[in-house]
Amino acid sequence: METLIKELHRQLVIMNKSAGNNYTLCAATLDNLYSVYPFNKFEYVISHLLGTNTITLKQYLDMRNNYLERNRYLYVFEITAPRTFGETWAQRHLNELVPELRRPTTNYDSDYSGQYDFWYNGIRIEVKASRAVRRKSGKTLIEKALASDSHYGFDMNFQQLKPKCCDVFVWIGVWRDVIRYWVLSSEEVKTNPYYSKGQHRGNSGEGQLWFKESNIAAFVEYEVSGRDILSKIIEKSRVGE
Hints:
single chain; 241 residues; alpha+beta; 8 helices
């Protein structure tokens, strides 16, 4: 909610200048405002601005739609449990994009024991997801969430990568406003110069890879649109044959 109020206030300052600086709501009022759902700071600011004719209903709706568009995936940053985000959300999201992917069982792979996430015509697929968050910030995850055009340095870490356990990786990167996808063969991950082996002590064959503003461009050749993920999985499964 604080993130929403800050963004709202930034847009209102700009809008207020063009309307003759009629916006007089005191910041101290907001700080002392007691909120009970659904009556909160957002509702109070909007009702005040509409009631004083500082903004029109159309301006409010335009501002609202713009905010929703720029924060369409902000809800993903509200998922605090790593397993819920990395497994439940990411796997469901990918399966919605590519319904042809199957949950692996021993009926497909007699050696299967949880090593990877999806199966497609003999191809073993592992899904990893990460969120773009502002580096060097002690704020909560949702407050650190970055838009794709942010100038702040960011971290995006794909963890527990085990190239020997799958044929293809699908990586999902989430920003506040966009979701991006990369598809790599296990061999391409294992030999990538940014792949760091030995994430956890004693876990042989496991590593991690960090995306930052300084190296994300090096992975442009692996990036695909959502509709092309399956064809790229098939292509990458043949790497090294």
